[in-house]
Amino acid sequence: MGFSLKVKTKTGQHILRDVSPSLTLSQLKSQIVEFTKLPPDCMHILVGFPPRKLNMAGLEESIEASGISNGDTLIVEEVAAPEVPAVAERREDALLAAQSAAVAEDEFAGVLLKQVVPADNSCLFTSIGYALQGKVNTDGGILMRQIIAEHVAADPESFSEAFLGRPNREYCAWILRDDSWGGAIEVSILSSFYGLEIDVVDITNAIINRFGEDKNYGQRIFLLFDGIHYDPLYLESLTGGSPRTIFPIEAESIYLQAEQLAKEAQASKQFTDVNRFTLRCLVCDCHLTGQVEAQAHAKSTGHANFGEV
């Protein structure tokens, strides 16, 4: 029985039906090139949940041997092709113009909205999962926490105690707990793992923090952060269709809309002052004020499960 695969691109979705499990990666790539019209060397393919980069080193390997399963979703990301420096310099203006022309403004006609996810200490991971898969799945954080712990454990020099705020091994045990909150370190690691830019729209300061900006990724997702909680953003199209959560970097209108959303949310004080908000320790019922007191309480007692009052 053949595989059925869903392929997501910036132009829409495609279904590949009755795909033979013995089909080679090279043949699969040729099929994707056929309907996306993307040059083979301008393409990255992500597969699975959470999405991971498909290793295209063995092009004659079967798709089944590569880890692709029936029902999987493939996310096709357009990236810039490598060029000879002299040629790249001469063609820089032409390339930028071509990229701008490739993104039709009416494709992104719509309103950027917030998808509310549970405030359960895993909101960062649930938000990223929603942006990648288009649905709220609170179980996705388990694998993301494992990804982060393995990444940190594998590089104790970069992820030192001075950087993490606690010993490497202690951090790895901490992040695996379902009551541990994620932040900038975790966003940066997940941006690198999934191969896309994660833009955190910070309401408190009305700015956008771009994680992976220096990696020249072709796509980005947006998360809204109010000081303690993350929610994903999606585009509600004016022309109908499914909500969109992954955007090409060159879609400037979406980024500008996210900036405006941050300013409006700050003006209406839709954020939490982390120095003044009141928390209750759900372990010993102790009431605490602000992030500093909560961190000190967690360090002295080992309690790390808090709820906002």
Automatic annotation (TrEMBL):
It is found in: Cytoplasm. InterPro entries: OTU1_Ubl, OTU_dom, Papain-like_cys_pep_sf, Ubiquitin-like_dom, Ubiquitin-like_domsf, Znf-C2H2_OTU1-like_C. It catalyses: Thiol-dependent hydrolysis of ester, thioester, amide, peptide and isopeptide bonds formed by the C-terminal Gly of ubiquitin (a 76-residue protein attached to proteins as an intracellular targeting signal). GO terms for biological process: endoplasmic reticulum unfolded protein response; ERAD pathway; protein deubiquitination. GO terms for cellular component: cytosol; nucleus. Its EC number is 3.4.19.12. The keyword Cytoplasm applies. Keywords: Cytoplasm, Hydrolase, Metal-binding, Protease, Thiol protease, Ubl conjugation pathway, Zinc, Zinc-finger. Its main location: cytoplasm. GO terms for molecular function: cysteine-type deubiquitinase activity; zinc ion binding. Residues 112-236 form the OTU domain. Hydrolase that can remove conjugated ubiquitin from proteins and may therefore play an important regulatory role at the level of protein turnover by preventing degradation. This is Ubiquitin thioesterase OTU. It comes from Lutzomyia longipalpis.
